[in-house]
Amino acid sequence: MSQAIERARTYLKPLKKLPTVWCGGCGLGVVMGSLTRVISGMGIEKNKMATISGIGCTGRLPTYIDTNSLHTTHGRALGFATGVKLANPELTVVTVMGDGDSVAIGGNHFIHACRRNIDITAIVVNNCIYGMTGGQYSPTTPHGKRGTTAPYGNVEYEFNIVSLAAGAGATFVARTTVYHVRELDKLIERAIRHRGFSVVEVVSNCYTSYGRLNKFSGPVDMFKWMKESAVTVKQASDMSPDELVGKLVRGIHVEKDQPEFIDVYDKLARDLTADSSTVNQKLRETIESYERLGDRLKARIG
Amino acid sequence: MSGNNERPIWVLQGNEACSVGAVAAGVNFFAGYPITPSSEVAEFMARHLPLIGGRFIQMEDEIASMAAIIGASLAGARSMTATSGPGFSLMQENLGLACLAEIPCVILNVQRAGPSTGLPTQPAQGDVMQTRWGTHGDHAIIALAPATVLECIELTACCVSLSEEFRTPVVLLLDEVIGHMRESVAIPAPGSYKVRSRPLPSDDEEDYQPFCCRCNDVPPMAHFGGPHRFHVTGLTHDERGFPTMVPAEVDKKIRGIVDKIELKADDLAMNEETMTDDCEVLLFAYGSSARVAKASVKDLRERGVKAGLLRVKTIWPFSGKRLKELAPQLRTIIVPEMNLGQLVTEVERAVAGVAPVRHLGRVDGHLFEPDQITDFVLEEIAS
Fold first, then answer.
1. Inter-chain CB proximity A80 and B57 less than 8 Å
2. Nearest CA of chain A to the CA of B73: how many Å?
3. Which burial class, exposed, middle or buried, applies to B24 when counting CB atoms under 10 A from its CB (0-12, 13-18, 19+)?
4. What is d(CA B68, CA B61) in angstroms, rounded to the nearest whole number?
5. Residue A114: which residues within 8 A CB-CB, separation 6 or more?
6. Which residues of A touch B225 (CB under 8 A)?
């Protein structure tokens, strides 16, 4: 075990980047610990991986992970990740985003990445609040809960990220919490190994903003909430909708085989170019159409 | 087909020509979102990239398109997108990231009349200042403007080369007229254009620092998946790429990305001059307006007015060198633009009152006519 931890530690950048910017007790440390254990355990070569994020507390995570790392603009991590993956499909590409990052400002990119089924893993750390900006309500703040911009309780209703991803066509969708660490390791590994777009929603604790505004006395109180409100997918299957209100259904929600985007694209390209005469024919056709116009023009102007 | 010694003649649309130029310059990744009047570029790339080992993707919007070309470039591709006004507005945020993080990529902006949805199928030159200042914060940008279909090939290739050489986004600023116009083009021989590659670190370089300019202005750039791994952020960063708020480091970074381009403005200047040797009235123009201005110069000469044309192909960084040289001999400088006064402010700044500068603006969605420019010049010199 300690060897595994030592190995995981080597996947943190050696420079003086620690401590992190995160509050002590924040679940993001748990997520980062899990990700480093998984990628070191899988033996992923550091140079052959890119960790990509947007903006917010979660956005800082790639700064500490010792792979290629890209900290982008708010909500756009998946757009950048799509370009990185298409230009070099050999890379393992993992994005880490918060709830506001992934399903508010980045919501459009999120659903289209799910639909496209490109081989990228999206870890969505859902703490139900905008933490870095000081506690404004997010698309996953539950109805009635408070944020600094929902001082009397949230008027809106929240997104269910798992349902959103599944509905948009993601081929691997899972959820767990930062309390269920072993499950988190397992799910992140399954997600990275999955060939296609994979989503792991990790329910986390922003006790500094969300907790303070919503009567949690501290990080431990929030971990207790996760422990008590989480039920497995199997348990949930025997529960009524009323019983499921306020529950976090953890485990794998979707896992299916579907051709991956780049695999399909490259097969198409291979088929098109298998017979070099086909390619030449297609290129010739284009060139000839331009030449025909040229000849016609020359004929007209003598 | 032409004879053996001649180059083949093709009839190409400006947008197609840009695509030909891009492929010739080694562009192997394209991400875009449909928008008039630029969509032909995406259609061409979708057809051709899979045939030549590249990849094309249609993203969900222009924000994602810009993100994808930056990501692809970081992973080693030569990448490009094409758009028009509204899409270009959406790209500004990530364009700024490419400037700050020094990531080469090419953006074709086929200008249409704005603001907002404006006139989707009509030309304008209203994005000149947006190209320069559209993304927030201090930065520099390179932007070129073709006036012919052949130049669409040449300058697109040039954009690719400059983006690689300077590790920066480069904008090709054409307009609807140039994008949709068809002209016959003698196709340049393969290898006619020297396309530079980004400066690379050596594979065995120890302690690679992705934003450290040693003896050059442009730091060597590794790529994701290569022998060096590195961190890239849109936060202001130090030479290793990590966020910094140390005033001296921040100052150095921002001045660095500006100076590497602005200090080369005179070297990057590409002009075409028509009858400027003895001219007393100088027309200063670019893009499709310059084609009309050229016709007007001929008219004016026939009427005995010593007119000349300075057409700039390099819009940004703006070089005032040639204007300063010509200014003492000039009675007036006329700047026709399909906007209400954008690049003219740079002209005024360059000549600094040595010659009077007059702007002729047009924003009705139509190209100038030679008579309009000629009449304006005649009125100006009469007054």
1. no
2. 8
3. buried
4. 11
5. A165, A168, A169, A170, A197, A199
6. 47-48, 50, 68, 88, 90-91
Average pLDDT over residues A33-61: 97
B237 vs A contacts (CB less than 8 Å): none
A69: Cβ contacts below 8 Å, ≥ 6 apart: A50, A51, A52, A62, A63, B229, B230, B231, B232
Mutate to test the interface with A, among B2, B6, B11 (most CBs of A within 10 A): B11
Contact assignment for A47 to B16 by CB distance below 8 Å: no
Nearest-by-Cβ selection for B225 from A47, A273, A286? A47
Structure tokens at A299: 């004929």
- Token pair of B266 as six digits: 């005179």
Asked if the Cβ–Cβ distance from A293 to B11 is below 8 Å, we say: yes
Measured CA to CA, the distance from residue B45 to residue A162 in angstroms comes to 35
Q: Do B74 and A70 touch (CB under 8 A)?
A: yes
Half-sphere exposure of A116 (CA within 13 A, CB side): 23
| Domain spanning B271-382, CATH class | alpha beta
User: pLDDT band at A302, cuts 50/70/90?
Assistant: very low
Parallel/antiparallel/unpaired status of strands A198-203 and A172-177:
parallel
Q: What is the DSSP string of B61-91?
A: SHHHHHHHHHHHHHTT--EEEEE-HHHHHHH
Rounded CA separation B346/B104 (Å): 26
Q: B9-186: which CATH architecture?
A: 3-Layer(aba) Sandwich (3.40)
B231 contacts: CB under 8 Å, gap ≥ 6 = A13, A62, A63, A68, A69, A70, A71, B210, B237, B240, B241, B242
Mean pLDDT taken over chain A: 94
**Neighbouring residues of B296: CB distance < 8 A, sequence distance ≥ 6:** B283, B307, B370, B373, B374, B377
State the helix-helix crossing angle for B287-302 and B370-382, rounded to 10 degrees: 60
Q: What is the mean pLDDT of each run of 10 residues along chain B (383 residues)?
A: 62 95 94 97 96 96 98 98 98 98 98 96 97 98 97 96 97 97 87 87 90 81 96 96 96 96 97 98 98 98 98 98 98 98 98 98 97 98 91
CB contact under 8 A, A76 and B64: yes
The reply to whether domains B9-186 and B271-382 share a CATH topology is yes
* Token code pair at residue B350: 């360059």
Region A61-88 average pLDDT: 98
Residue of B nearest to A295 (CA): B1
Instruction: Please give the CATH topology (third level) of the domain spanning A2-258.
Output: Rossmann fold (3.40.50)
pLDDT of A90 over the 50 cut: yes
Q: Which string of DSSP letters, residue by residue, matches B226-246?
A: SS---EEESS-B-TTS-B---
pLDDT at position A195 is: 98
**pLDDT (tens digit, 9 = 90+) per residue, A207-244?**
999 999 999 988 999 999 999 999 999 999 999 999 99
C-alpha distances (whole Å) from A204 to each of A22, A79, A138, B75 are 13, 24, 14, 31
* pLDDT confidence of residue B215: 61
Q: Where are the domains of chain B?
A: 9-186, 271-382
Q: Can you read off the two tokens belonging to residue B307?
A: 């007119």
- Give me the residue from A76, A279, A286 closest to B67, CB to CB: A76
Spatial distance between the Cα atoms of B232 and B208, rounded to a whole number of angstroms: 13
**Residue B171, strand partner residues:** B107, B143
Beta carbons of B55 and A109 less than 8 Å apart:
no
* Gap between the Cα atoms of B80 and B290, Å rounded: 26
A154 within 8 A of A137, measured Cβ to Cβ: yes
